[in-house]
Structure of Chaperone protein DnaJ:
Amino acid sequence: MSQREWIEKDFYKELGVSSSATADEIKKAYRKLARDNHPDANPGDTKAEERFKSVSEAHSVLSDAAKRKEYDETRKLFAGGGFGRGGFTPGTGYTGGGAGNFGAGEFNIGDLFGNASANDSGLGDLFGGLFNRGGGNRTAASRPRRGSDVETETTLGFREAAQGVTVPLRMTSPSPCTTCHGSGAKPGTSPRVCPRCNGSGVVSRNQGAFGFSEPCDDCRGTGSIIDDPCTDCHGSGIQNRTRTITVRVPPGVNDGQRIKLAGQGEAGLRGAPSGDLFVTVHVKADKVFGRAGDDLTLVLPVSYGELVLGTTVSVPTLDGRVGVKVPPGTVDGRILRVRGRGVPRRGGGVAGDLLVTVKVAVPQKLDSTATAALEKYAEAERASGFDPRAGWAGA
């Protein structure tokens, strides 16, 4: 895509958000549109496929803070007739003469921007593809374009997320052409350097007092020409295909966490580097375990007698069962810690702990034998002088 096409596209409109939208609003809008127009959900629908590509392209620019800043600043400068169609015309607007006259070759608008420093809001980068000094150097605009980043989601069980798992993800996205291996040229042939721009991707022309550079029409700013395009990708080096990617989810991943797979995103144009793949992990709740950081939590039902007399109870862990000792006289709600039986830590470090909360289970019905025994115990308890409300502020 040329810079002019890039500037004229309204990526905010593609996603249906305002130019002041937050990163979260942009992400939310993209996810909905990508889900609705995904090729897997609309098999054979070319309009949905093109829409999917458009919103993916918009998201790749607006989700990157640096790209979004460059896009916004460039559109702002080109809006309102300053440099746009029917606005600024090089070589016009100055009729003076003498020492103040700008002769050809004495003033180049590229001098205003080409030497901009890193603190100049990136003006040198913004105009690098539009203005230069006649250049045989390859500009940023003509370099092979890196592929866009791709986002997807997967859902794991609680124990899978805690212990780590390898999952296959089936995706449909732009990928390097398997026939030409991303070059865009028919197998057995190679792209050649564009003779018009000598591989720079831009051509220069003078108009009035200014030297003006623009993307080369012959090679469309790529710097190379393909005489015999690949029949499968039509010279783009990219195919929209379905592939299966194996993702290794490390132990201890949290709900909502993103995993980055470098180079597994959208393919770059004509062999340029691919973008990255970001996988957002969703974790299902578990019926037994909860989680507090790297610690596992569970609630252990016990009887009143077990709390008073003490006992040892078998409880589950991520990799089997373990005996937990309940000391005599344990109070309801006490947390017992089993070290090293929690969530494994990354890098093979010591795992978290298992936190067991004891909770007394009160029987709803008793038979006559149990009722008589409990009444006898209550009498003995009173006789021993035990008062459960001794020291209670409400007494």
Remarks:
- Residues 80-142 have pLDDT under 50 and may be disordered.
